[in-house]
Amino acid sequence: MLGKHQLDRDARHIILPEVGIAGQMRWQHARVLIIGAGGLGSPVLGYLAAAGVGNEGCLGVSEADRIELSNLQRQLLYRDDDVGNAKQDVLQDTLQAINPAVNVTREDKLTPKNALDMVRKYDLVIDGSDNWHTREAVNDACTQLRVPLIYGAAEQWAGQVSVFNVSDASPCLRCVFGTPQEARACAEVGVLGSLTGIIGSVMATEAFKVLLAKPSLEGILWHIDARDMDVTRIKLAKRSDCPVCTQKHPAGTSF
């Protein structure tokens, strides 16, 4: 049950008909893994922690980087004095300052070798990584274990979000983008700081909906160009020749 402090804190969510006490409890007991705590992971973590996601479960964070000065233009969980510190060390304190009840779990850097063992502990995975090898490892582990996956990317003025693996009909990341792909680094091409906030906020919103078993961006690639605020929704199809999601795997988490 939620105590008075929690009821007051989460009142604006609880009053939503789609959430209520039951939905808030689902969020609190969820185990969510966030891959990357940079431009996309920062807003995702901030909104999930503030909402009480993981209070009784956990927010797992896979992030091995240290904070650089160039991160501060868009990664709002960090401050000037944090430069040089491990992101994991700062996150622990920052997220618990946002919500002292949140349970933050540190995870190792995700690799193809440890992806299955890491992902199987969670109900939902949110991928805010910035390289294709990590994205492939996350996708393949989530697909094999049938764990829902939220994908997001941002570059220059444009970004996109999709949701995979909620149902058997869902395409996976390889269905959509093939292999291999390599995102250009922000250091090379730049990225609008507020755009990462937009994409991270949409990813967090999709996480809330998936945890509530509400319709999401599964089977849809949501794309925004911030230069003219043009939004496009692209319908995605599952490929019959996909080497990953066409394999039969045991059922995973069901919300």
Structure summarized in a few sentences:
By secondary structure, the chain is an alpha/beta fold. It is 35% helix and 17% strand. The chain starts with a helix and ends in a 20-residue tail after the last strand.
Number of domains: 1
Biggest pleated sheet = 8 strands, mixed
Number of β-strand runs? 8
Which percent bin holds the helix content?
Answer: 25-40%
Give the overall silhouette: globular
The CATH class label is Alpha Beta
What is the first-to-last residue Cα distance? 19 Å
Average pLDDT metric: 93
Oligomer: single chain
| Annotated CATH homologous superfamily | NAD(P)-binding Rossmann-like Domain
Structural class: alpha/beta
CATH fold-level name: Rossmann fold
Structure annotation, total helices: 10
The parts where pLDDT drops under 50 for at least 5 residues are 251-255
Strand ordering within the main sheet = 3-2-1-4-5-6-7-8
Q: Which percent range describes the beta-strand content?
A: 15-25%
**H-E string:** HHHEHEHEHEHEEHHHEE
User: For the CA atoms, what is the radius of gyration?
Assistant: 17 Å
* CATH structural architecture: 3-Layer(aba) Sandwich
Description of the structure:
The chain is an alpha/beta fold. It has a single domain (11-235), classed as Rossmann fold. 35% of the residues lie in helices and 17% in strands. The protein contains 10 helices and 8 strands. An 8-stranded mixed β-sheet has the order 3-2-1-4-5-6-7-8, with helices on both faces. Strand 2, helix 5 and strand 3 (104-107) form a beta-alpha-beta unit.
